Each structure stands twice: as C-alpha cells, then as structure tokens.
Target: Peroxidase
Amino acid sequence: MAFARLSTFVALVLGATQIVNAATTKRVTCATGQVTANAACCALFPAVDFIQENLFDGGECGEEAHSALRLSFHDAIGFSIHGGKGGGADGSILAFNSTELEFHANGGIDDIVARQFPVFQGLNLTAGDFVHLAAAVGTANCPGAPQLSFFFGRPPPLAPAPDLTVPEPTDSVTKILERFADAGFSPAEAVALLSSHTIAAADVVDPTIPGTPFDSTVGTFDTQVFLEVLLKGTLFPGNGSQPGEVKSPLAGEMRLQSDFAISQDPRTACLWQLMVDDQKLMMAEFKAAMAKLQVLGQNTRKLIDCSDVVPVPQPFTGHIKFPASFSKKDLQIAVSSFNVSFSLISLQN
Ligand code: HEM
Ligand SMILES: *[C@@H]1O[C@H](CO)[C@@H](O)[C@H](O)[C@H]1NC(C)=O
Ligand SMILES: *[C@@H]1O[C@H](CO)[C@@H](O)[C@H](O)[C@H]1NC(C)=O
Ligand SMILES: *[C@@H]1O[C@H](CO)[C@@H](O)[C@H](O)[C@H]1NC(C)=O
Ligand SMILES: *[C@@H]1O[C@H](CO)[C@@H](O)[C@H](O)[C@H]1NC(C)=O
Model:
C-alpha cells in the first residue's frame, strides 16, 4: 500500500518533470531565422557563421578543421576521473596556452591556437565553449562525419592542465589505454576516437615533410585510415625513421606507431578491423565517444544541449577502396581469430 502510494507520487513527480522538460525543449525560431530546441542556443548561430568565415575559410574541411578537432582532444584529455589533473573540456589549452603549448605532446598545436585566438576574442564565448564548438563545426565540414553534439555553458577554465596527460605516438598500447581509462574511456572508446585520424596529417613527427596525411583521403571522414593502417608497411615517407613513426604502405603517407600498435593489439584489434568500411558503425561510435570527450570534467546539468547549431555534414556513401595496386594480400593482421569475421572480405580492390 505504502509502496503503491510512493509509486503514484513518483509518477506525479516524473510527470511534472516531463512537462518542465517539454516546456524548455519547445522548438523556437531565432531572430536570425534558424530553429533550435532552446532559445539560449540562438546566440550560437551567428557564432557558427563567424567561425566558418574566420577560421575555416568559409566552411572547408582543411587543415584548420582537422587541427580544431585535435585541439579539442588535447584540451579535454587533461582530466582524470580520479581528480588531480586538469579541468577537462574547459578551453584551458587556449586560455593558458603559454603553459600547455610547452608540453611535448602538444607539438604542432601552436598553429591552431594562434589561428583560433583572435576568432575566440571576436566572440562572446568562454574558451571551453569556443574550443569545443569550433571542433564540432570544423568536423562537420568534412563529408562523412557525424553531426557532433555541442553542449553550451562551460565556465571559464581555472588553470592549465598538467603535463603528460596527452598520449604520445611513442607510448605503448598499455600506457595509452591506461591514460584513456584514467580519463574515463574504454579501449573501444579509444579506438572510436581514433576515427579522427581519417582527417589527419602530421607536421612535426617528421618536420621535413609537414602535412603528411595518415590516409589517402584526408579530406573525407571515411573509414579509409582503419584499412590503410592494416596494410603492410614498406617505407618511411620522409627523412627515414622518426620517433613515433613506423613504416607506411604508401609514399606521401605517414603511419603513427601508436595507430599501428592499437590496430594489432588483442584489446583493440577487433574493433579496429570492424570499423573498416562500416561507415555507420564508425559514425555512431565516434559521435558517442566525442560527446563524452567534449564535456569531460563539466557539470552537464548546467549545460544546454545546443547540438542543433552544428551544421549537418555531407554524407559519405558507397564503399572505401584499397589504394591502387593494393589488395587483401597486402593486409597485416595480428589477431587471427577475427580474419574471417570482418568486413574487409567484401572490399573491392
Ligand atoms: C592514442 C592517442 C593519440 C595519439 C598518440 C595521437 C597522435 C597524433 C600525432 C603525433 C599527430 C600528428 C601531429 C603533428 O605532427 O602535427 C596527430 C594528429 C591528429 N590527431 Fe591524434 N593522436 C591520438 C588521438 C587522437 C584523438 C583522440 C583525436 C581526436 C578525437 C585526434 C585527432 C587528431 C587530428 C585531427 C590530427 C590531425 C591534425 C592536423 O591535421 O592538423 N588524435 N595525432
Ligand atoms: C595565448 O594567450 C594569450 C592570452 O593569455 C594571448 O594574448 C596570446 O595571443 C595567445 N597565444 C597564441 C599563440 O594564440
Ligand atoms: C555574453 O554571453 C553571456 C553568457 O552567455 C550573456 O549572458 C551575455 O548577455 C552576452 N553578452 C553580450 C554582449 O552578448
Ligand atoms: C634527418 O634525420 C636525421 C636522423 O633522425 C637527423 O639527424 C637529420 O638532421 C635529419 N635531416 C633533416 C634535413 O632534418
Ligand atoms: C589470419 O591472417 C594472418 C595474416 O594474414 C594469417 O597469418 C593467419 O593464418 C590467418 N588466420 C586465420 C585463422 O585465417
């Protein structure tokens, strides 16, 4: 009896909460004409336009878009679920750039910080909101990307993140997975986040060949990087072997030691292989892991879901392909139990 009353009470309270939620999530049309779930998000549409114009050359999936995504990772990962590290996705990498840019793992990040700083100053956003909105918008410029979510309302960062929170390509898989776990991410989420390397290039791994991409379709958010990291490595694209680099299969392509090791490790190889040519899986896993990354260390109850200000990316349809002259015989797959199950079998040359 008491139980029945309690559940009636709970039902009433839940009902009331749903009404409140319905009221606050009522769609509104902003003065600028766009429609959003929350009036507080209206201020962001002009900010998105400003970012597209002044940071991304009018909406391109170019180097700034790629680096904005990398910056969101280097900002957010400065966090531990056990405390004692940084504030997470708080924009500290921008606000405390003179400290964080000194960290070895932030090599090459100085360019995007310098590009973002004046754009940040031109907007009324906190550093955290700016860094993570720019990452969502820049990623949306890349065909095939999921529409990342954006939560609005991060307070200004309090302090720089400490050093040694960002994984290095020279780190072992164990060290990398331990760092991800310390920040709250599973091995599967680490693999999902590495989908980002499909729109990535290296400037400082081998400084003689800046801008060397990790796959052959650097302007498309496809699953090509997951395939190409599995091809037998035969060459170094620049000045011989550099720290954090292993042999790549193609001239003009860089392979990170960490990407390769993660593709071959029993803890991560299965998902790595499953990602190959499964655009839907990759999009869903990357979107979910990014949603977590971009609010790391934040009190999400105080943030407003403004995901509908993020542009909808062009889709990637069809299948990825082996690069010219490559085929199944060039695959290098350490975890043999998955040979039969994964999607490569149906891939075309
Ligand atoms: C195991 C963890 C990771 C390691 C060791 C790693 C390492 C690297 C390295 C060495 C570079 C090249 C830097 C340069 O020479 O300029 C790079 C580029 C990049 N990384 Fe990662 N990364 C990791 C995870 C991630 C994650 C989780 C993201 C995003 C969610 C990300 C996004 C990117 C992007 C977009 C670039 C290209 C930047 C550009 O083209 O300007 N990385 N990464
Ligand atoms: C770093 O931040 C300071 C403000 O703290 C700013 O004046 C400076 O331009 C920033 N540096 C870069 C490279 O963006
Ligand atoms: C700046 O942003 C804050 C927080 O979103 C808002 O309260 C304030 O009205 C804005 N100021 C201007 C000048 O737009
Ligand atoms: C090439 O690499 C070697 C060994 O890592 C280094 O000593 C040399 O300075 C590099 N050359 C150039 C042009 O960077
Ligand atoms: C899986 O692939 C590897 C490398 O291609 C090969 O050496 C191994 O025999 C294969 N295993 C099975 C069970 O097919």
